[in-house]
């Protein structure tokens, strides 16, 4: 944890994600289902952070809200110094493109694009005309130098997730959200992917937010936020403990 | 926005790149989309392009079509004033007297109704009389011979050197007439042409009272003559004398307009094919985009804006549309090469095909506009899909803005209206066409929905597994039931409507079997011939059915205004034909079967004391703008007769019998110069032939109409027309087949997953085959059934409102079209699912995923 010596305002500046009294409900027929309630926490720039909890506890919903993929019913989110409230869909997209990286449980590679093209997309969206060299280097880093022109359907699950890792880091994000990154992988492959994720993250100095129900994985992050029934059970720092 | 975000973003080049990357991987499916519109575009382009060529040809060959620069014609012997006008124009370069007459062929005793053209001078001055031998066209006048139509020569086994008897004169046949300016294939199939030397025509004895004779005077203009100006000056003068002037350009324009109308009609049929293809596109793109939505959500997670993700797929569809348009256009241009062959019976000349850019541009634009418009509604999903879909599968489809969908719908309707208006040149017709299409499509869609709801509600739970499973397939997610029912329904609707319409027309033209209906009509019987002719008929044991007197007359004044004054009145809204027409009237004391009294009272007998109460047909009353009680003065061959409109009749002109627009009561025209129409009924062709032979020999001026022959001709012409229409409808059917294949292939992935599951659970190939076959049976049977039923309704409406005829539907559409299309649908369905049935599940999955 950074030492808080610069007063309230300076401390706030180091926070890359501030979540304040978040509430999210979904309507199911005539009933309203509260998925998240009174969620408040913040993440310091450069930290690794995990959100854990049983199925249905609201982990993925929270991740979606923090990344600006969905809108809360109540509360405020500030991501990378920008309040998400009031941003329209395209402004949110721009923010994601320039500041955020994603890793999904089921990889979510674009099936009609090769590995290289998948990795290039975030940079190309920024207007880069030739992103293939840096994308190739990233693919080399994740050990897929010989798979650059393969389509997702021609890759194994572990390979696909490694392409997803390369894609997530391709735009040098300030914060990276990973939703159950090992959820669809066997233990051994999952372990390799996690190693790679942490290595890349360390090298890039990116803030990492992982949603997982794997406690072993969670313990590798600096902070763990436990959710249950849509509420924070507790938040603790694994570094201090 | 707070923060320091760099607002540079991917430009349009990246959008094209992404569209290409994605499209490349989905190539096969996208190609199938474009196949849906290719045929429709090909059909529209081919007709457009051919119409252009035809227009160009008519304009280029207009002189050859008339054979002269201009002509003065009249259906009465030109009076002094007309002859003076002709002289003032430097005299005619060529003359023609034309009329219908019987021609006898002494070689084998055959006779036939022909169109005699007695020609003087070097006519035609442009183009030529195509004859065999070639020289016959130049020498027939000098040799006092005849040129006889090629089909007649063939029909009766005649050769040059044989003879033909027209009226009292026998002519040696100088040559076989292949074609002549002013004779079309269709007109010669009714009455083939016989060309004779003009100076021999008096000898035939056929130029007498009652003969419908047309006098034509042909002119070759000096170069630089402004024909339009000449026409404007001379035509009003000729009008006063019941004559007319036509320039080659005006005649060709009229001809061009006639063909243009046919072209418009065929274009509409082609447009239906295109619309059908577009329904296929809308449906395929709907599923295509639905499967892409997660990828779109991922793109949005990675930072793509709504506009970018929407444009990627819009570019893809527009690109496919352009490609479809291009292929369709090329196909259309190739296709038009076959049109001269298909339409040869209707064309007055050989058409040299030319290339024009307009149909090409239209084809490309149609491809892009139609595919984008019809794909827009499903494409909107990419705009509205939430990036959250990348994290979790949301069952509900993204909420689309109702306003956006409405706008798309309006856009489609506006485009259809504009395009139809462009095709038809009449807003009312265009709106009517679009409305009719919308109603047909809506009915089919409503029936499809109703069907699915009914099956759901009354699901036959007691049925066996395969039957139940095949029914369930009709509601599977992303099912194609609606689009398939529309495609099959529209196709069947088109074919059976065409069939029924032909049926109605033939039924209308067919002969009444009762003894009172004649099948032989003898025209132009002179009063002094009547008794002898009737005796001959009775002597052969044949009944005398009609003996109708005919008196020719013209309008002299209408409601107190002289016809000549009305002619010069530019604001008069009276239909001009009334003023110039030579009416053939009759007198009798009762109505006949084809007539219904609609207004007034039919006067049976009258005297010449005071205006004569006459009966007008409703169309004449309407065109002359007269009502009951109005006065009309007729010029009955030089004698003026005052009449008053006593009654108005509705006449069924379609009946194969003699109908009259003006009927006088008995007692006033009995002593006027007249001729007669006599009819009888011959029980067989041989009796008919023997009667005709006798009549031609004894009364050469009498023309004999054998209604059975005419009916065969009508049937032949209808067959030719329906062949052309069927040819165009074929594009709709084929498009329907492609849409069907597209739909089957689009939902293939789901079918494969189901089949794999069923296989895994132990289903045999036969069971899966049965499920698939039954599913397509339901779709084919229902779609074609609704199509045929709808066509029954539309044909009934056509029969009542357009043809004013009764309609007894034939069973053929039910016996052939319905099972035929059902079988076709089943075969296509099974053929396209064959690899699902024949391959091991895992292999199929690997290939398809």
Describe this structure in words.
The complex is a heterodimer of chains A (241) and B (849). Chain A is an alpha/beta fold and 241 residues long. Chain A is built from eight helices and ten strands. In chain A, the strands form two sheets. Chain A has a six-stranded mixed beta sheet with strand order 6-7-8-3-9-10, with helices on both faces. A four-stranded antiparallel beta sheet of chain A has the order 2-1-4-5. The model of chain A is unreliable at 1-13 (pLDDT under 50). Chain B is an alpha+beta fold. Chain B has four domains: 10-48 and 259-458, no CATH class; 70-220, no CATH class; 461-514 and 708-740 and 748-849, no CATH class; 544-680, no CATH class. In chain B, the strands form two sheets. Chain B has a six-stranded mixed barrel. Chain B has a six-stranded mixed beta barrel with strand order 12-14-19-16-18-17. In chain B, β2 (94-105) and β3 form a beta hairpin. The radius of gyration of chain B is 34 Å and the shape is elongated. The interface between A and B is large, with 43 and 39 residues.
Counted beta strands of chain A: 10
CATH superfamily of chain A: P-loop containing nucleotide triphosphate hydrolases
Radius of gyration over C-alpha positions of chain B, nearest whole angstrom = 34 Å
CATH topology of chain A: Rossmann fold
Mean pLDDT of chain A: 86
Global geometry of chain A: globular
Sheet of most strands of chain A: 6 strands, mixed
Q: Percentage of helical residues of chain B? A: 55-70%
Write down the CATH class of chain A: Alpha Beta
Which regions of chain B have little confidence, pLDDT < 50, spanning 5+ residues?
A: none
H-E order of chain A? HEEEHEEHEHHHEHEHEE
Domain unit count of chain A: 1
Ends distance of chain A: 12 Å
Low-confidence segments of chain A, ≥5 residues, pLDDT <50?
A: 1-13
Query: What proportion of the residues of chain A is helical, as a percent range?
Result: 25-40%
Q: How many separate domains of chain B?
A: 4
């Amino acid at each position: 944890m950074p030492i808080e010596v610069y007063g309230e305002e300076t401390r706030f500046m180091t926070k890359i994600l501030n979540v304040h009294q978040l509430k999210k409900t979904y309507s199911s027929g005539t009933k309203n289902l509260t998925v998240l309630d009174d969620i408040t926490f913040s993440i310091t720039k450069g930290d690794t952070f995990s959100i854990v909890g049983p199925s249905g506890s609201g982990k993925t919903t929270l991740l979606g809200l923090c990344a600006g993929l969905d809108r809360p019913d109540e509360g405020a989110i500030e991501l990378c110094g920008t309040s998400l409230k009031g941003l329209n869909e395209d402004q949110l997209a721009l923010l994601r493109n320039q500041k955020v990286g994603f890793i999904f449980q089921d990889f979510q590679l674009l099936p009609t694009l090769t590995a290289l093209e998948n990795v290039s997309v975030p940079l190309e969206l920024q207007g880069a005309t030739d992103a293939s060299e840096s994308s190739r280097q990233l693919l080399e880093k994740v050990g897929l130098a010989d798979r650059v022109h393969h389509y997702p359907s021609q890759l194994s699950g572990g390979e696909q997730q490694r392409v997803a890792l390369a894609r997530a880091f391709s735009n040098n994000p300030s914060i990276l959200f990973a939703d159950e990154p090992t959820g669809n992988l066997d233990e051994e492959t999952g372990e390799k992917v996690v190693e790679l994720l942490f290595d890349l993250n360390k090298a890039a100095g990116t803030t990492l937010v992982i949603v997982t129900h794997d406690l072993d994985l969670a313990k590798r992050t600096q902070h763990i936020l436990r959710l249950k029934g849509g509420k924070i059970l507790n938040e603790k720092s694994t570094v201090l403990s | 926005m707070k923060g320091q975000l760099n607002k540079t973003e991917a430009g349009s080049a990246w959008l094209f790149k992404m569209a290409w990357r994605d499209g490349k991987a989905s190539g096969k499916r996208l190609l199938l989309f474009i196949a849906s519109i290719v045929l429709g575009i090909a059909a529209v382009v081919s007709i457009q392009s051919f119409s252009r060529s035809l227009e160009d040809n008519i304009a280029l060959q207009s002189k050859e079509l008339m054979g002269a620069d201009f002509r003065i014609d009249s259906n009465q012997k030109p009076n002094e004033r007309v002859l003076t006008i002709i002289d003032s124009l430097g005299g005619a370069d060529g003359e023609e007297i034309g009329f219908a007459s019987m021609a006898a062929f002494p070689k084998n005793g055959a006779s036939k109704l022909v169109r005699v053209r007695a020609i003087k001078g070097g006519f035609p001055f442009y183009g030529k009389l195509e004859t065999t031998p070639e020289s016959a066209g130049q020498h027939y006048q000098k040799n006092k011979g005849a040129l006889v139509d090629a089909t007649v020569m063939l029909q009766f086994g005649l050769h040059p050197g044989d003879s033909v008897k027209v009226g009292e004169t026998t002519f040696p046949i100088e040559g076989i007439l292949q074609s002549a300016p002013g004779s079309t294939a269709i007109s010669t199939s009714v009455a083939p042409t016989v060309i004779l030397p003009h100076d021999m025509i008096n000898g035939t004895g056929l130029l007498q009272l009652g003969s419908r004779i047309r006098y034509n005077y042909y002119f070759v203009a000096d170069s630089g003559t402004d024909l339009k100006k000449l026409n404007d000056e001379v035509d009003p003068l000729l009008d006063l004398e019941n004559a007319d002037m036509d320039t080659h350009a005006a005649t060709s324009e009229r001809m061009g307009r006639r063909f243009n109308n046919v072209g418009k009609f065929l274009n509409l049929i082609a447009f239906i094919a295109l619309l059908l293809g577009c329904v296929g596109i809308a449906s395929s793109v709907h599923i295509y985009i639905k499967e892409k939505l997660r990828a779109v959500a991922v793109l949005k997670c990675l930072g793509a804006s709504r506009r970018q993700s929407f444009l990627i797929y819009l570019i893809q569809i527009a690109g496919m549309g352009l490609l479809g348009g291009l292929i369709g256009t090329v196909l259309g241009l190739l296709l038009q090469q076959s049109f001269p062959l298909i339409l040869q019976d209707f064309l007055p000349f050989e058409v040299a095909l030319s290339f024009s850019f307009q149909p090409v541009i239209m084809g490309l634009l149609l491809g892009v506009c139609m595919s984008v418009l019809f794909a827009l509604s499903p494409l909107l999903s990419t705009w509205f899909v939430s990036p959250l879909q990348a994290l979790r599968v949301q069952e509900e489809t993204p909420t689309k803005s109702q306003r956006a969908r409405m706008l798309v719908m309006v856009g489609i309707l506006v485009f259809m209206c504009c395009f139809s208006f462009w095709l038809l040149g009449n807003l009312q017709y265009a709106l009517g066409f679009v409305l009719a299409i919308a109603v047909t499509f809506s009915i089919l869609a409503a029936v499809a929905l109703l069907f699915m709801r009914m099956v759901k509600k009354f699901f036959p739970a007691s049925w066996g597994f395969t039957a139940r499973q095949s029914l369930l397939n009709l509601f599977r997610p992303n099912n194609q039931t609606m689009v398939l029912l529309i495609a099959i329904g529209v196709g069947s609707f088109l074919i059976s409507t065409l069939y029924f319409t032909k049926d109605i027309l033939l039924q209308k033209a067919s002969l009444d079997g009762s003894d009172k209906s004649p099948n032989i009509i003898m025209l132009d019987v002179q009063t002094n011939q009547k008794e002898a002719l009737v005796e001959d008929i009775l002597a052969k044991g044949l009944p005398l059915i009609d003996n109708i007197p005919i008196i020719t007359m013209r309008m002299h004044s209408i409601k107190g205004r002289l016809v000549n004054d009305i002619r010069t009145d530019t604001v008069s809204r009276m239909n001009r034909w009334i003023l110039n027409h030579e009416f053939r009237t009759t007198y009798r004391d009762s109505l006949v079967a084809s007539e219904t009294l609609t207004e007034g009272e039919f006067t049976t007998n009258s005297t010449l004391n005071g205006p004569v109460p006459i009966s007008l047909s409703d169309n004449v009353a309407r065109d002359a703008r007269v009502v009951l009680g109005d006065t009309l003065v007729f010029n009955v061959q030089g004698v003026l007769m005052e009449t008053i409109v006593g009654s108005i009749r509705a006449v069924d002109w379609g009946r194969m019998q003699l109908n009259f627009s003006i009927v006088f009561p008995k007692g006033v025209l009995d002593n006027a110069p007249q001729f007669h129409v006599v009819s009888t009924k011959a029980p067989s062709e041989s009796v008919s032939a023997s009667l005709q032979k006798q009549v031609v020999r004894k009364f050469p001026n009498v023309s004999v109409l054998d209604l059975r022959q005419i009916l065969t001709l009508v049937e032949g012409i209808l067959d030719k027309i329906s062949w052309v229409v069927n040819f165009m409808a074929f594009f709709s059917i084929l498009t329907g087949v492609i849409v069907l294949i597209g739909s089957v292939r689009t939902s293939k992935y789901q079918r494969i997953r189901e089949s794999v599951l069923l296989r895994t659970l132990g289903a045999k190939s036969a069971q899966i085959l049965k499920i698939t076959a039954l599913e397509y049976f339901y779709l084919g049977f229902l779609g074609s059934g609704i199509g045929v039923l709808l066509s029954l309704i539309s044909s009934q409406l056509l029969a009542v409102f357009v043809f004013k005829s009764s309609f007894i539907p034939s069973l053929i559409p039910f016996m052939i079209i319905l099972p035929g299309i059902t079988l076709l649908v089943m075969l296509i369905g099974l053929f396209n699912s064959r690899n699902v049935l024949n391959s091991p599940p895992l292999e199929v999955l690997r290939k398809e995923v």
